[in-house]
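Progress narrative, Year 2. Work on MscS Mechanosensitive ion channel from Rippkaea orientalis advanced from sequence curation to structure prediction during this period.
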Amino acid sequence: MIKKLLKLLVIALISCLIVLPLNAQILVLPELNNTNTWLPTNNNSAEVSACIRLDGLCLFEVSATASDIAERVQQIEQRLHRISNLYFYQQDATLTIEKRTVNNLPNIHVKVNDLEIRLLTITSLDIKNQGVDLETKAQEIIEQVQEGLERGRKERELVSLVQKGLIAFIIFGLLLILNFLVLRLIKRLNTYRDRVAELRINQPISTELTRRQQWNIREVQYRLLQLLEVGLWLGATLVIVGLFPYTRIAQIWLITLLRIPARITIVGLGTYLLIRLSYALIAKLSTLLFSQDVLDFEFNQRLQLRLRTISLVSRSIITIIWVMVGIIVALSVIGVNIAPLLAGVGILGVAVSLASQNLIRDAINGFFIIVEDQYAVGDIIQVGQFSGLVENINLRITQLRDSEGRLITIPNSEVKIVANLSSNWSRADLSIPVAYESDIDEVLTLVHQVAEEMTKDKIWQENILETPEILGVDNFSERGLIIRVWIKTKPLKQWDISREFRRRLKIAFDRQGLPLSLPQQKLWLTNI
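Result:
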């Protein structure tokens, strides 16, 4: 669909080129002044240049000091506006442009019918660094003014206005067609993104990484289409208002008004797209690392958790880096001198490091937690008096969800001793109380049978990694004989295995008439 849209854009461009008249150069956006005279300057004696405009187009440039340039441009343009009104709106007006020398400086005089107006005096600043003399510069300005006034008069003719109106109508029609196609693409991408978002819940890591990669790529396409839509409307508006001499000045105003906001917006959007593309690259690299043809099952299980954690942390770091780069680039494109800013980053870094020692300790400890694979998202851990499922980890904090549903946030600098209950494999540790009166050999045989049956069960055998170990009588307690059983399981499956084993053991004991021991006490009474 993107290729079709590009083809339509090419067709639209060719159509415009066919319809445009020979003087289609009017559609080109006019150049702005070389010097931003609307920006404040500290050096009022600096020499600057600015354009003298007619109908929004630059006729010629004049030069002056920074403190005088605005006033000189205003005076010349007021005279030019008066001349153009006389010449444009008188049907039989005649135009004569002459050069007269006063005090060794050429003066340009424009005569419309019988009314003569001095347009400007050419100074030495106007020819500085241009490699021409005053006479040559005067002749150039005469030709430029003559051409500009004749062009302006021709553009105001009815035939020209009708022709430009037809061109504007065609451009607007193409705009509506292209906008309709872009909106259709945006709608399709929205539908696809919603479908991907629904499928991302509780997916295997390989599927999740692939979906995440597709999501980020589609997000980039979605934002580019939004930018294209805005660009189409803005570009068409600028071109249409630039067609007519009456509205062309609005083109300059719009460009001047939107220059800085547009640059900041483009940098911001570019930063966002780079972040999304980086997310897609991280997902792609993670997918390449996760190869089930190479890795064994246990390592696969652990790698899933590590990839989730590393992916989350990597995306956080990438986001911070790109945002910082985006801020620096944005300041640079709007004209801010970033050299002192970059020089002050070192000093600022020292100050921040002194004020953020706890944050630095958190980040360093978080880095080693991830590198050493102490735990990852999806593990169940115990840190001090807190335990639960790791829901989120970054360079600063670890967040746990305990059995009561509470979200516990622990700074990484506080993670000194951690117990991981689900790293690589887990173990179901069972203590089975048996009455002292029971035949211990019969009980052990029955426990062996139950363990063997459960190991062979298709539902449970994939979660049991090794043959259960019957350790024997582990203790004599007030409840009776304690038989210890170890069952090696997949991570986080030890509790399910324990519950099922106890259920089966209770059924087997009832079938054989063997009671499970209850807490008991014996009381001896003696004659007092």
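Confidence is low (pLDDT under 50) at residues 1-41, 292-297. The CA atoms of residues 320 and 370 lie 18 Å apart.
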